[in-house]
Amino acid sequence: MIFVLVHGINDTRVKFKAMQAVLENQGHRCIVPSLTPKNGSSGLAYLARQLNGIICAEIDGSKAKICLVGFSMGGLVARYYLQELDGCKYVSQFFSIATPHHGSVLAYLSSNLGGKDMRPGSGFLRMLAQSEMRLQGVDSYSYWTPFDLMILPATSSIWAKAVNIKVNALCHPLMVKNGRIIADMLAKVEIAESAGLGDNRL
Predict the structure, then answer these.
(1) What's the predicted TM-score (pTM) here?
(2) Which DSSP letter does residue 112 get?
(3) What are the domain boundaries of the chain?
């Protein structure tokens, strides 16, 4: 299985160092880009188009299915890729981790385009809500913690389209390193592969 890991605001691919090591140790290939600008100043759609180009170049006609993982802002970037750039044709499972599916009030502290995209009720979030039916063929999961002080309210990570999984991680940054989350993703991938959900659909 190919895992594509999408980092959050002001992060780089290094954020996924621990997760990547576990996934690769289990025999999975990981594509872990550092998207720029990492502060999202060009908007989340811009980052999603960048992600699309990287994925297309990396898979280069491969028929292997993708498991897409998005942390924080990266979950919204991943959703734009899935819903607006036809990424759903290549992705079998989507795991969002501490993602502000309904925005975060902290985004009002940012005046750049990405910050505006993540404000509750933004045009970007309304667009994603309107097109999420395109994810019907993608198994989606959302991991969230009630102790999240970056996603406010923390319940913004609860997403009706997904299976929501509460994890009592003590803070936002630790979610991406949480052993329970990584183990749960691997278990879900194994179940899907056993059921044939990772087969080619291209």
Answers:
(1) 0.94
(2) S
(3) 2-194
